[in-house]
Amino acid sequence: MSAKDRGPVAKTLDMAAAGPPEVRVLVEGDASAFRELRLRALREDPVPFLTSYEEDASRSLDDFAARLRASSAGTEVLGAVRDGKLVGTVGYYRHTAKKARHRVSLWGLFVPGEERRRGVGEALVKAAIDRIHGVPDVEQVELTVVTREQAARALYASLGFQVQGIIHHSMKLEKEYYDEAHLVLFLGDRAQDPRVVLPPGLPAPKEDGAASHLKGMMLPDVVLPSSGGGGVRLASLAGRTVLFVYPRIAGPIEPHSPTWMAIPGAAGSAAEACGFRDQAHAIHEAGAAILGLSGQSRSEQREATKSLHLPFPLLSDHTLYLARELRLPTFEHDHDTYLRRLTFVVDDGKITHVFHPIFPPDKHADEVLAWLKAHKAKA
Fold first, then answer.
1. What confidence score (pLDDT) does residue 188 get?
2. How far is Cα 25 from Cα 89, in angstroms, rounded to an integer?
3. Which sign does the torsion angle of CA 6, 8, 11, 16 carry?
4. What is the C-alpha R_g of the chain?
5. Matching CATH number, 190-374, of 3.90.950.20, 3.40.640.10, 3.40.30.10, 3.40.630.30
6. What are the backbone angles phi and psi of residue 104, rounded to the nearest 5°?
7. Residue 296 pLDDT more than 80?
8. Superfamily the domain 3-186 falls into
């Protein structure tokens, strides 16, 4: 029996009472539940959505069913279902114009209040990205988000979306204007991605116990500037995140000095970031998001993200606040302080595994992926 034949959401899923929601493509038989949740979104939280409650309430059930019937590769509505009940939705559509067929736009992400902070929104967006990633010739995923929606912006930044610009006075609700940020996630073509080769003879760092205290610690409640725009609140990271910490990514015409290259573990940050870029989809499939972090400024992080085609954001601990709070190992060079290379696996804000020391850095993403496959996150 096909998914379409099985009918409404309440009749199509056999789920346990506990655990994460199931995310799947909504079909014609789900139209009533889809319409009900959409109207609730517009009634309770109208600001993030372009259409109004009155506009969508005037649409018939068949209008909603027609949208679900029109599903195709790159154009679908996903639903998160828990205990037979629809608890979140997100839609996306592929642009039809020949010149824009490489673009897909997300729309309509909504999770009701009682389901928030349970990873439903993240599960929906990740599932959407996964499905879009499998559509041939699609190169980027786009969306707009109201600038004051900080939680949503942090979610998108954590998944690699980058701010491309601000649309001022994008929407007007009664007498109040709202600005929107235009965000893009570049899916990339690995064949076109830049390659960074490690020079031979780099000295390997030694285990000295400098990171042994970190496992089991909670990340502090700090918002760090992100290369994607805005910031990421570390204490609010939901689910599993791989946070790789590195000393410094040099600019494209800024070679490192011989004294830098002689420091064990200093060189190789660009090659490490490229390794995570190349394994980003596999790491995502293994259940983890990716964040990079160093003491460099947001502008330097943004340039590194752009030049290396990174599909995830880089965070800036420019004041070394996080380094002090977690007592991260550091080293000195030319009177400046740099973070040593290490990687956290973070589950719901708690450090559950630490990689340190790391060598060679260009192979580290493979090491992390192998660990993730062998140590599944607890549901």
1. 62
2. 10
3. positive
4. 22
5. 3.40.30.10
6. -125, 135
7. yes
8. Gcn5-related N-acetyltransferase (GNAT) (3.40.630.30)
